[in-house]
Design goal:
Strand order of the largest sheet: 1-2
Number of strands: 2
Distance between the termini: 29 Å
Strand content: under 5%
Order of helices and strands: HHHEHHEH
Structural class: mainly alpha
Radius of gyration: 16 Å
Number of domains: 1
């Protein structure tokens, strides 16, 4: 396997990204994920991947809502995702409704920057 070579700018961006990533120990079952995806589809949000081999934003939202619920139910609200960064127009248009229903707010990069929570390298 060949090694990936990054220039200084790419390495800095990757390092900043990794510093901001949180890993949750909670993993929802495939059946629970599919059920949540069906709920979201019933709201008019399609489970269509943007790129081959990568989960759709709707499926990613479904997984993260389940992880958030599992963490809160385990008494670990500190591990529960509160926001999901996305470009998906349907998720963003229904952010208030989805946050109310599932406790996880879809947000755009613009909203993240506006709220002052993103610090670019």
């Amino acid at each position: 396997m060949s090694k990936l070579k990054l220039n200084k700018e790419q390495a800095a961006v990757l390092e900043q990204f990794v510093k901001n990533v949180e890993i949750s120990p909670y993993s929802p079952s495939p059946a629970a994920i599919q059920q949540r995806v069906h709920e979201l589809e019933s709201l008019g949000l399609e489970d269509l991947p943007e790129f081959p081999g990568i989960s759709s934003p709707v499926r990613q939202y479904a997984i993260n809502t389940l992880v958030s619920t599992m963490a809160r139910d385990a008494g670990r609200s500190d591990l529960a995702p509160r926001e999901l960064l996305t470009k998906h127009p349907g998720l963003l248009e229904r952010a208030d409704e989805l946050e109310e229903r599932y406790g996880l707010r879809p947000i755009s990069m613009d909203e993240l920057r506006r709220d002052g929570e993103w610090h670019e390298a």
